[in-house]
Amino acid sequence: MIELDLPAGSLDCAIAAFDNGADAVYLGLQHFSARKHAANFSFEDVRYLRAYAPNKNIYVTVNTIVDDDEILKVMSALRQLTYLHIDGVIVQDLGIARLVHKHFANVPLHGSTQMAVHSPNGVRMMQNLGFSRVVLSRELTIKEIAAIREQCPDVELKVFIHGAHCYGFSGLCMASQLLTSRSANRGECAQVCRTWFNLEPNMKSGYFFSMSDLSAGPVVRRLQDIGIDSLKIEGRMKSPEYVASATRYYRMLIDGETNEAILEHARLNLQTAFSRESHGGWLASYGRLNDEPRNGPKLSTVSYAGHKGIRVGNVKDVFVSSGNQIALVDLDKPISVRDGLMLLKKSISGIEEPIRFALTSMWSTTRTRLFDSTGHTTVYIKIPSETVGEAKSIVYKISAHDQDVSISKKAASTMYKLPVDLTIRIEQSKIELSTSMHEFFALEKAITYVESIEPEAAKRAQSTYENFREIFSSSGESLFTLGDLTIDNQTDIPIESMFLPLSKMKALRRTWYELLDESCRRWFDSVIQYDVEEYTPVGEKLPNRDRLNPPDANGTFIWINPKNITKALMCGQQIESFAAVYEDIVYLPLSPVMFDKSGYLQALDTLIAHLADRTVRVGLNNIAQVLWARKHPEIQCFADIYLYIANRYAAELLLESMPNLIGAYHWIEKPYEGLKPWPLVVSDAGPSFRAPLFISRNCFRYDSLGKSCEGCTRKGQWEVEQTGKRFRVEVRDCITVVSMI
């Protein structure tokens, strides 16, 4: 059965998910989470959740980029997750992946969608690095997902099916960092794509980079048939009501519910909880299979970027009665007093402004006061006095008066405790307690406690074993509880005839669990011992990154198109016209986005063959390209700006994976300080270099401007403006890149 994985931005959200049928939740800790502004989870919260749902899967996101100074905190967090028997840790940073693989081999390693894995080669490389599951990019079509599944049958695949779409590929977006100094790769996304821009030259305003939400219910069964392992719903910033509604709807689909009325009711409840304009995304609404013109819905919400809920009717008329503003509304769907409603008012600039209000009064056309209404009827409703109503305005329901979720209090009553096997050895003058701790978990291979005690022969039969089991099973606030109990009696007194005071047993218990807790917390907080060597770093300094941009980059497409370059070379043109040549070395930075159908890497092989008499260096910008580099050890390669290297562990991993690695650019969102010993020479991109804001599979011409694909040359340029800053929008081969001018 395919897994249903729900977002948990808080403990209440996680409980709502499990209570309504989720198989799994994914959650973030209070550090190192890509949703820094969610409530997130403390160590104690996860202990409560593990105790509440012992047979469910809990995945923890440690999916931000970290530097060397943060590795110690990451290690402590990973140790806590090991204690909790987490079912998987979701990571973006290659250094964290190396830590997990090296020090926590029993913790399943999952690749975050932040890694922008969108090809079979990408999935294969992730497997080579020890990942057991990959969360695929949201930009893939059903056909592309099926191809990945077919070519990568022995790795788990997770696919997004519902929730917010980012404009750019997750993990590749620099808009927040460049415009607000808040890195999306650090969980601080400022959601620049949800703000409005002015399109030059007419200065028309619009949310040109705001994507519609994904709602892929119709393809759930197709994903099951393909063999996808897990379905993921977005929303760690959303409410428990949203999580509960999403769980119920998709649980029905997975379980094979066929009653359309029941499914539609569940779908509308979900939309009411939270939904922008929604569509099937690339999964179901892309509108084409190959390169033919698209005919599906636009994937952007240009006029309004917020929650719309569900459409419930149209305003026919607006008038004032007894000082109140009243709207006459033709209803398509039922509404009730205390529901949240919204009207959208068109501004002069072209964007829509929301007018949100709680419904306080409603009447029938015969002026009878109503609390509830049916659909397909006409009613009067009271609207805010400042509202300027327009005939034919659409009425949206954005919250339901009865949609609150009741959260079980049971989750706050019991914390998870790790069962530990205990051996009690009883001798004539002492008692010894010992356990062999989990070797992947404890500092000590075994913990032992000895105390002097003289057992006595009882005058009547005793329940010594049962007493030990009962007393040690009650561990109070300890992190541990009793697993298997073994009593090794070395005295002449049979265990059933041995007298030991209950008070002594309880004192032993208290001391024993204090000893275990102290050892565990010491392990949580102990400093990782770096395998520090006197490195002679491999490689060399790279040129400032803007020197490697192709001549036609224009600040947007800062990578090569190998197919076009090869065609030009075959026509007698020089490589210098199409690729950067620095100190007589040809630099070929690769695109971070490449779909197999384009034959990008095959074209690269052909291009390199044409450059056999030149020194060539290839820049790697996606994990899939590491696999290519390993197959071409004769080609010098460097880690380019999108293959993030922010700590020495990431550098070690890449260097071990590619002996032909000659250097790397440091993670561009933070300057390289060079304070720690690294095995690889890393370079700053340089003060004049600016990465693009967005790299998107969303076509600006089709999705944002609403133009037809008919007759399109698959390329174009536009300029947009926001608060005095100007940006270039360029489309090539239906990929949109946005950069600062």
Task: Walk me through this protein's architecture.
The structure is a single chain. Strand 13 (about 310-320) and strand 14 (about 325-330) form a beta hairpin. The longest helix has 24 residues, at about 500-525. With about 750 residues, this protein is an alpha/beta fold. It has four domains: about 5-165 and about 210-285, Copper homeostasis (CutC) domain (TIM Barrel, Alpha-Beta Barrel), CATH 3.20.20; about 310-400, Translation factors (Elongation Factor Tu (Ef-tu), domain 3, Beta Barrel), CATH 2.40.30; about 420-525, no CATH class; about 545-695. It has 18 helices and 35 strands. The chain has an eight-stranded parallel beta barrel with strand order 1-2-3-4-5-6-7-11, surrounded by four helices. A seven-stranded antiparallel β-sheet has the order 16-15-19-13-14-18-17. The chain has a six-stranded antiparallel β-sheet with strand order 9-8-33-34-35-32, with no helix packed on it. Helix 5 (about 120-130) packs across helix 16 and helix 12 (about 465-475) packs across helix 13 (about 500-525).
- Poorly predicted runs are none
- What would you call the shape? flat
CATH fold category name of the largest domain: TIM Barrel
Strand content: 25-35%
Report the average pLDDT across residues. Answer: 92
CATH architecture heading of the largest domain: Alpha-Beta Barrel
CATH class bucket of the largest domain: Alpha Beta
Radius of gyration, CA atoms, in whole angstroms:
30 Å
Helical content band: 10-25%
CATH superfamily of the largest domain: Copper homeostasis (CutC) domain
Structural class: alpha/beta
